[in-house]
Amino acid sequence: FLYFIAVPSTATAMSFAAILEGSNLDTVGRRIAAVVSRMAGDDGALIARDVLAHVEPLLATCRNAIAVGNVPVVEATVAALRHVVDADPPALIRRLTDNGMRLFHAVASFFTPIVAQGNFGPAAAVDLLHSLQIITTAPGAKDVAGDTLAAPLSDFLARGVPDVTDPHLLRRRAVSCLLNLVQGHAQNKERLRAHLPQLARAVAQAPEFFVQVQAAELVWRITRVHKAWLADPAVAAALGPSLRADLAALPANDQLINNLITLLQAHNDTVPESASARIVTLSCDGVEARLKQGTEEVQAKRRIAGETTAFLSQSALVILLPEHGACEQLTIPLHTIASAKLHTDATFVVRLSAAP
After folding, report:
1. Residue 251, domain extent
2. Which segment of the chain is annotated as a signal peptide (predicted)?
3. How many domains is the chain built from?
4. Where is 200: in which H helix or E strand?
5. Mean pLDDT by 10-residue block, N- to C-terminus, for the chain (356 residues)?
6. Backbone angles phi, psi at 189, to 5 degrees
7. Is residue 247 located within the same domain as residue 342?
8. Are residues 223 and 351 in the same domain?
9. N or C: where does the chain have the smaller number of CB atoms within 10 Å of the terminal CB?
């Protein structure tokens, strides 16, 4: 007779609290990494709840790893936090907002060493910004995150990204965090006023079109009630007269910026002459194009899975569509674009009309 003995897995054999015990940081890091690898499985939500119940020692472990420069442990702890965020965002936000946002401050304090300084590699930076992007949607987080994150996020966008990170993805998520902070929160708009010159430089100088558009929306949201802020000499110098005038002319309501590509065209010195000089990475759920063929309007939708690449030139927006191992190009002449919108769910929508 053969007897099969079920051996409990790491996550069920010991609680997450026990996994975090021990003075050997490398051993603890390997245990956390093993748990993280199982979070993608069928019982991932159950494991995430166990991790959430012990998030305080998890953050303490991350802080200790940052202090001694232990990259694998930092990556493992921040990856565990991201899985908890994805599994149950409301539960994590409730936990982080207890005790006067003490735990949120602990998470936010990781931003500078992990993301802004690039000391712990791209994986930890992406995971941390992903978590912050979700956490900053909570009203409780908005109240304190303006003080905690406004300055480092603004400086990060203005200064650039260290070579060890993915600049496209990190900049997009950093701008998304700031957009979360200012939406429906007048006090955070006031806080970010001091950082408008840095944000304006991100609008005018960001090498990625997607980030430039998002940063333009951020500046618009901050200044739409106080248009005089656009006249600040430092902001004016960073934006340039054409783009500043376009931002000031936008309607004072909460709709997303319309006709964003036209807005960028008005500031021609930010758009290089060469057709493929401006390379961007778009994180899109879809591109929607509305075309007119003769008198008949045709609705055409193309789905993009994950990330793709696009080029912005003086005459066209070219989006690469990987399909069946090949790469098809969707070329959109700028003069046919009626409007372009960015949605909060990272959907990039382009509406096309017949050429004038």
Report:
1. 10-262
2. none
3. 2
4. helix 196-205
5. 39 68 87 89 83 89 94 95 85 73 85 89 89 81 78 82 67 83 82 85 67 73 79 82 70 39 37 29 35 33 43 54 49 57 43 43
6. -65, -40
7. no
8. no
9. N
